[in-house]
Amino acid sequence: MVESVKSGPLPRYYQLKEIIRERIRSGEWSPGSLIPSERELCERYGISRMTARQSITELANEGLLYREQGKGTYVGRPKIAQQLLRLTGFTEDMRAREQRPGAKVLTAEMWPADEATAERLRIKVGQPVYRLRRLRLADSEPLAVETSCISFMGCERLLEKDLERDSLYGLLEIVYDMPPMEAEQELEADLARDEEAGLLEVEVGSPILRTRRVTATRRNQPIEYATSIYRGDKYRFYTRMVRDQR
Amino acid sequence: MVESVKSGPLPRYYQLKEIIRERIRSGEWSPGSLIPSERELCERYGISRMTARQSITELANEGLLYREQGKGTYVGRPKIAQQLLRLTGFTEDMRAREQRPGAKVLTAEMWPADEATAERLRIKVGQPVYRLRRLRLADSEPLAVETSCISFMGCERLLEKDLERDSLYGLLEIVYDMPPMEAEQELEADLARDEEAGLLEVEVGSPILRTRRVTATRRNQPIEYATSIYRGDKYRFYTRMVRDQR
DNA sequence: TACCGCAACTGGTCCAGACAACCATACGAC
DNA sequence: GTCGTATGGTTGTCTGGACCAGTTGCGGTA
Fold it and tell me: By the number of CB atoms within 10 A of the CB, which of A29, B161, B172, B194 ranks highest?
């Protein structure tokens, strides 16, 4: 059985990406092994070399493949960060870690933006934003406290939603067609204060990871400013860094 | 004055990248503004559209530009993470933060790899690696304790180097031609223990950020496994995440 | 045997052009 | 005035070549 790459709603380079991904997932092409050369791939799937190169380039940027000039293209060794580096909300993050996500809504309201929030969302101080504060659970245990401020035309409709059951990022993407596309995040180590310690069920003074995140949708429009704290003993953050090319 | 793009040792797409970078750095093209269309750029610099597209695509991946189909390509808003996300050693990291880096060597020795180190560097347990433990300073104040284990053919020559003055990553790149190309890192919040607290000049039980990093050079060959602790009150980690395309 | 150079591969760069998808605007019909 | 449509701009996808640069193995030569 040979998959083939056809013209249609999905671009050819994307179809080839999926085929390569599947070969790797299935183990047919194992980590460290050489994949077919670019010229071989174009011939096999009836596409031009530039198109095949686009597929390989994007997968290499994701860390799934790496190239060596003069030798060939290899399957990368699996990275812990690979599944955890993508921009996701808490729900997807927990699933990638093979834990069961949960949420308890602490507050959900329209709330006048303070200075820090207004600056990051590029709105005026005092403009109402949808503010959601949730205790986040992993396998039914408290893991984090997450405070999201959302600002877009009609965001007050979020008040009607059940955010204990639904994923905020899922709603944004599917219901409101404002998919989170990019985020900038900062992390620092801190100690749990009184109220935070109570919610996370740890002692006051326990280590916590504090994060601040600005999330943008298409057109580089910021829609969310989220601050979270994570239990230091139960959460690790993974990342991958690359050197500038050339 | 018009820069021009010529054939030569540097590829044309790279020359155009640098020209665009310079336009942005100088403020000639300001954040949020539209840059010339792809067709205009190829004509102006005498290159083909595919080549111009490669320049723009790479700059967009770095977050410096963003595209909107049907409208054009825009200059991205400056991101804190932009300068801090690249794979760098402590020295470069501090310079990007506009702080003066410093180092005090605690130990520098050949050391038999323990299990965790051997697995990450893909060598045998007990194989000697160059192990460097340094107190890292920012503006002459203690900021971090960094322990690097380096493994490559001839790494024992590092014993002769002065690692209080020189940057480890600088040496690896320039002297040994093994530039760090990619790293995978994990971060967690913890509390300073006895010895650590003393070195960092903080109280026992103060918050610290603990990191573990595996650094690879070309050919995806791991060369460094580094564990560090940073003072929680003086160090923030910045990162940027993007949604999968399509 | 030891070395060198060539040939046959690999990925890296580049071209000129084509059509599709999408977006803004202007213009006409209703 | 409002709604569709035409139009000319943008980026997105794709072709089928071309040559360059790095790697490897093979065969011939010293």
Answer: B172
